[in-house]
Specification:
With 65 residues, this protein is an all-alpha fold. The chain has a domain of 45 residues. Helix content is 52%, strand content 0%. The protein is built from two helices and no strands. Helix 1 crosses helix 2. It is elongated and about 30 Å long.
């Protein structure tokens, strides 16, 4: 795993934890963290503060990422 993937993984975990650790939504948090990371890369800000809406359903389990 490269450094960027670890940063995204850590941020996805933080988002998931902050949302109350809901089950079945791992993809939602992973993609939110990745999108925020990519925006930070483009702007040079690196601000990982993605918002994950409560109504999106994930397809796979947390351990897949």
């Amino acid at each position: 795993m490269n450094t960027n993937e670890q940063i995204i993984r850590d941020q996805a975990y933080e988002l998931w934890d902050h949302a109350g650790r809901p089950g079945g939504r791992s993809d939602e948090f992973w993609f939110a963290a990745r999108a925020e990371f990519e925006r930070g890369e483009e702007t040079g800000e690196g601000n990982l503060s993605a918002h994950v809406p409560p109504h999106v359903e994930a397809v796979s389990s947390w351990t897949e990422h």
